[in-house]
Every structure is written in C-alpha cells, then in structure tokens.
Write a structure and sequence with these properties.
Length: 202
C-alpha cells in the first residue's frame, strides 16, 4: 500500500497568459493591472506597475491529479486571469526570442511543424521526468511531492528574493497579495526546468 505522503504527482511551472504574450511582443502595456511590491527586497521599495521585459513572473505548483491542465484551469478560475503552462517548448521560445523579430514572424514560426519537432527534441528529451505538462514524481523517491515543491520555493527565494504581487483578479480592490510568485530572468528558465527535473527524478 502506498503511503499517502508519497503519492505520485506533478510539479509544474506557469505564468499569466498576458505576461507570456507581452514578453513575446515586448509590450508591457497589457499588464497595467499587475502591481509589484518591492518592500521586502529593497529598502524603501514601493508598489509599482510591472514594467520588465527581461523578467517573467512564475509560479510553481504541484498536483496529484492525472492532468496538470485541470489544475491550471482551477488556478485560472480562482485568479480570473488566463494562465499558461511554461512547457519546455514555450521556455525555448521565450529564451530564444529576438527583439528584432516581428510579431507576425513569431506567429508563423509557431505554425512550423519542423521547428516544433526540433524544439521538442532539444528540450523535452533532455528532461527525464517531464511528461503530460509537468515534471512527474512517482512517489518512490526520497522526498514527498510537497517537500519537492517546498525545496524549489526555497531555492528560488534564495536566488531571486521574495517579492509580493498584488492580484486584481482575486480581489478587484487589489488588497490580496501573493508571495508564491517568483520574478525570474527569463534566460534562467531552462536551468530552473533542469533543477525541477533533477529533484523529481531523485
């Protein structure tokens, strides 16, 4: 009998859909509803609009459901903002996006089956535990799924600090603050996927 504390499940990483699109278009104007509080990270830090094209706001989650997409839909319904799974293919696109590329060119490149297969070959195949939209932990490893998620949170806070996000989706007045989001340089996303993969496979 499997111990309830060692259930199999997934660790996944996601962001706001509007943020993902804004990073590709390099237009943060679509994020005028998103506020950041730097008071924990910086002395005299203040609340301000999100304004970066080099950072991406990410959240790490866990689920014992058979589908990561089902859990993401629940988050979306709670927060009232569309969210998007940061799959290896999407991370590849974010990290290799050129400032000079036009929106239309980017849209057409997404339609290329050859490019999609190349991205899948170079990214997903290097991640041993990635499948079905998340990093799979079989429940037989040294750590529980919750412990893996907690270790990832601590690792990211140590590297990038802990900022607060004001969510106008959860609370139209903007009083609700989230501390589980991480502001990560988008160029660092591949190494974060590799770290999650390592923890889920051990």
């Amino acid at each position: 009998m499997v111990n309830d504390t060692h259930k199999a499940g997934f660790i996944y990483i996601y962001t706001y859909r509007y943020m993902y699109d804004s990073l590709l278009s390099r237009n943060v104007a679509d994020l005028d509803w998103l506020y950041v509080d730097d008071s924990i990270l910086i002395p005299d830090g203040k609340r301000h609009h999100w304004s970066s094209n080099d950072l991406v706001l990410c959240k790490i989650g866990m689920t014992t459901r058979s589908s990561v997409s089902t859990r993401l839909l629940e988050w979306q319904n709670t927060c009232k903002h569309p969210v998007i799974n940061l799959t290896p293919e999407r991370v590849h696109l974010l990290c290799n996006f050129s400032k000079k590329r036009h929106k239309l060119v980017t849209m057409f490149s997404k339609l290329s089956l050859k490019e999609h297969e190349e991205q899948k070959t170079t990214s997903v195949c290097q991640l041993r535990t990635y499948r079905d939209g998340g990093f799979f932990a079989d429940g037989k490893g040294r750590q529980t799924l919750a412990a893996i998620e907690n270790d990832i949170h601590k690792w990211l806070w140590k590297r990038y600090g802990q900022g607060l996000i004001y969510c106008y989706g959860c609370d139209p007045k903007g009083h609700t603050r989230h501390k589980e989001w991480f502001r990560i340089p988008r160029k660092k996303l591949p190494s974060i996927l590799q770290y999650i993969d390592l923890l889920c496979g051990s």
